[in-house]
Write a structure and sequence with these properties.
Length: 316
C-alpha cells in the first residue's frame, strides 16, 4: 500500500492529470470499496452504481469520479415480510455496520465537519468519509469521499465486475477488488438522463433541498456512453419509464407537478439546461478539471448529445 502511494505523482504525470490529488482520491475510493465488498446482509445486497461504477466498467470516461454510490437492493418480499418499523431498524442496522467497518479500518474516518445525512427512514444515507491526504486538494474535489447509500430496486440484474484504480491500471501493481456487484451501463445511463432533467426542473420550481453543482457530470457521462456503446433507445425507454415510476413513488409528495405530468417536467428541465448559462459554467467548473488525457469534450457537444438522447427516449 505505502509503495503504491509513492507512485501517485508518476501516475498523474503519465496520465496527463494535473492534480496528484485526483490519483490519490481514486486510489482510496477503490480501498473503500474493498472494505465494503465482503459485507453481506440477509435483507439487502450492496450494488455499486453511478458514475464511478461506470468509469470502472470499461467506459472510458477519463474523468475523476469522486462519489461512491451504493444501492441497497432489498430481497424479494422485504416490504411484505417486515413491518414499517422493522424495515427502518433493519436499514439503520446496515448503515451502522457500514459506518463501524469504515471507522475500524484505520484508514478512513467520519468527517465531523460534514455530518452524515439520513432521510426517509434510512432509505437515503449520505456519509462523508475522510481519507488520507498528502497532496494539495484540487478545487474541483471535495475533501471527502461522499458515500451515498440508497434503498432501491434495480432496473435489471447487477453484473459482477472487478474494480481497479488508476494506479493499478497503469502500474499493474496492487490487488483488484474482485467481483463487486455493479449496476449495468444502460440502466445507469437511464438514471443519469432522468436525474439530470428532473432535478434541473425541480430547481426551477425551487424544490431542490440543496443544489448539487456537480450534477452536470451526467451530461458528460452520457456523451461517453453514446460515443462508445451507442444509445439503445428501446432499452433506455423501458428503464426511463421505470425510473419515472420509482421517482413518483419516492418524491411524489415533494414534487406534485412531476406526478401529474412527468414528461413535460423532464422536458422543462431539458430546456432549462439550454437557456440557463449556469449549467455551462458548472460544466467548466466541475467537469473540465476532472477530465484527463485527450478526452476533453466541449459543453456544446456534450449537451447536444444529451439533448438528442433524451428527446429520442422521451418521444419514442
Amino acid at each position: 500500500m505505502d509503495d503504491l502511494t509513492k507512485l501517485f505523482p508518476d501516475v498523474a504525470d503519465a496520465l496527463g492529470i494535473e492534480s496528484v490529488a485526483i490519483v490519490e482520491k481514486d486510489h482510496y475510493i477503490v480501498e473503500l470499496l474493498r472494505l465494503l465488498q465482503p459485507l453481506t446482509f440477509d435483507t439487502h445486497q450492496l450494488v455499486f452504481a453511478g458514475g464511478t461504477a461506470l468509469s470502472k466498467a470499461g467506459i472510458s470516461l477519463n474523468r475523476m469520479s469522486e462519489d461512491v454510490d451504493i444501492k441497497l437492493v432489498p430481497v424479494a418480499g422485504f416490504s411484505q415480510q417486515y413491518s414499517r418499523g422493522q424495515r427502518k431498524n433493519i436499514r439503520k442496522g446496515i448503515i451502522q455496520i457500514i459506518i463501524e467497518t469504515i471507522t475500524a479500518s484505520g484508514t478512513f474516518r467520519m468527517d465531523e465537519e460534514y455530518p452524515k445525512v439520513t432521510r426517509d427512514e434510512y432509505r437515503y444515507n449520505e456519509i462523508p468519509v475522510r481519507y488520507p491526504q498528502e497532496y494539495a486538494q484540487a478545487p474541483c474535489l471535495r475533501p471527502f469521499i461522499r458515500l451515498e447509500l440508497m434503498e432501491t430496486d434495480l432496473l435489471e440484474a447487477a453484473e459482477n465486475r472487478d474494480i481497479s484504480s488508476l494506479i493499478m491500471d497503469l502500474t499493474k501493481k496492487g490487488e483488484i477488488v474482485g467481483a463487486f456487484p455493479c449496476a449495468t451501463i444502460v440502466s445507469t445511463q437511464a438514471e443519469k438522463l432522468i436525474s439530470m432533467m428532473r432535478r434541473t426542473a425541480a430547481s426551477v420550481r425551487n424544490l431542490e433541498r440543496a443544489v448539487d453543482k456537480s450534477l452536470v457530470r451526467h451530461i458528460y457521462d452520457n456523451f461517453c456512453i453514446v460515443r462508445e456503446k451507442g444509445a439503445d433507445i428501446p432499452a433506455l425507454k423501458s428503464f426511463v419509464n421505470e425510473c419515472i415510476e420509482q421517482d413518483i413513488e419516492r418524491y411524489g409528495n415533494q414534487y406534485p407537478e412531476f406526478c401529474e405530468s412527468p414528461i413535460e417536467e423532464l422536458k422543462m428541465g431539458l430546456e432549462e439546461l439550454t437557456s440557463n448559462p449556469v449549467y455551462k459554467q458548472r460544466y467548466q467548473q466541475f467537469v473540465v478539471p476532472m477530465v484527463f488525457g485527450e478526452s476533453y469534450v466541449q459543453w456544446e457537444e456534450a449537451y447536444a448529445c444529451f439533448r438528442q438522447t433524451a428527446l429520442d427516449v422521451l418521444d419514442a
